[in-house]
Amino acid sequence: xxxxxxxxxxxxxxxxxxxxxxxxxxxxxxxxxxxxxxxxxxxxxxxxxxxxxxxxxxxxxxxxxxxxxxxxxxxxxxxxxxxxxxxxxxxxxxxxxxxxxxxxxxxxxxxxxxxxxxxxxxxxxxxxxxxxxxxxxxxxxxxxxxxxxxxxxxxxxxxxxxxxxxxxxxxxxxxxxxxxxxxxxxxxxxxxxxxxxxxxxxxxxxxxxxxxxxxxxxxxxxxxxxxxxxxxxxxxxxxxxxxxxxxxxxxxxxxxxxxxxxxxxxxxxxxxxxxxxxxxxxxxxxxxxxxxxxxxxxxxxxxxxxxxxxxxxxxxxxxxxxxxxxxxxxxxxxxxxxxxxxxxxxxxxxxxxxxxxxxxxxxxxxxxxxxxxxxxxxxxxxxxxxxxxxxxxxxxxxxxxxxxxxxxxxxxxxxxxxxxxxxxxxxxxxxxxxxxxxxxxxxxxxxxxxxxxxxxxxxxxxxxxxxxxxxxxxxxxxxxxxxxxxxxxxxxxxxxxxxxxxxxxxxxxxxxxxxxxxxxxxxxxxxxxxxxxxxxxxxxxxxxxxxxxxxxxxxxxxxxxxxxxxxxxxxxxxxxxxxxxxxxxxxxxxxxxxxxxxxxxxxxxxxxxxxxxxxxxxxxxxxxxxxxxxxxxxxxxx
Length: 638
Prior knowledge:
The chain is built from 22 helices and 15 strands. The chain is of the alpha/beta class.
């Protein structure tokens, strides 16, 4: 069963935009701190119950402290009066009985707090009146503010807790995060693999997909091999030897049926549906213009426009989910915009596909679903200033730019535009309107906590693909073009993963022909080492010195930790034999720093082990072998 644990606290308690008062902010931090201190496994409902109980306990403790001090917060005096709680009786009892309170005090205060919470929820979450135990009705207009000493961490409003902010903003967001986490973890657990391969926009390139899967050794019959996640845009490409829409679609559909793959809806599948779907006026939802037909013609030709097969694929496209929630990471075709995702859910089936009755609405510009789909599947756009436009790469005039919603900062339209570099100069280099990024930028309050994989943006091919930001990766690197490989990104989740290890790593991009970066660096380092060594005379061969160097490298340097004392197998003496000659040469003709630097480079870049104690070990070994050679040479031991 899906459970929320300490590993998810960074998602649950990612900073909010609005806390109301300082007590609300302090409570957010206290929840995070208390959960971090304990081992726990909660369902979303259990977690929310614990949170509600914790808040009530803090409140009751604060009220008890007030009673004992005799100093009742002005925040609470009206609450006591309104709910007819006999606070004066308890104060009198306390002062007349040497500082003790009636045995039922905590029980009564707990019931009082429970009443306040229930009434607050009724006031701010339920229309109409509400009765608590059939006795009390909430006031028609109440601004519930509590003072909770346990939430006082300084400041003018320290300890003041604003119930409307908690109910309207904080609790709903925390509830959404917990429920999304639970649903995503449960979804991920329905698949056997702990790894996922997010595959970029294939655009009919069946042969490229097969080449890629062969390159990475993926086997659909091996359940431990990664789950394939296609981020959309399987279709639409010019027909050539690499493009076979039908072979690709049949292959992906079979993998989805076998639960070896997930395929998300891309904007090209969405457009294909609109091409065949008619609205209430009898017009096609996507106009059959020359421009639209040109973009779609390759697919239409290969499936046979209007054929039964064509219609069958349209129905399959309709069944595709618009996004995938894996709990600790997400995937969507173009943009993860949480407000749009939240609005979208009312239109979705349980598998995140669009309900049949809402498909016409998705193409109706007057319906909210149209804007939601535009943002999620095509990316948010920003209108250029009046009179400004540019010509896109397809020769079409545009007066809006598609924005890089993942960017933390941008000051001009040119900074924010998603265009190829050769097009960037055509975007007006004008200042952005104030707060232009706030609506779509998930990094408004820092990096988004849930990593997201997208496609769609036709990034320029690169031998070393980059993440778009710390938490956003795109896997569309123009594979639709001939000669450009298909790119994927691997993610994995299991018990061996470190809690702070990022889910998205640039080294986990995979594609046919990917250069071995570590080998390239190692070859370069080795080349520099060899060039440097050639500046010195050849090694002076001496068996005794070679033996000394061999033992020093094994016993004192030993970066991979094979030495196990005098009983170490003699074969281990040759473990570092590849480096003996160079150490001898540098010790004979250079100095300690040259030997120490050589050992550090070898250890870090060739053996790929960290240099311990900031190079102390390398320097000590260098001093040892250089001193031995100098002493031996000085006293004529050789």
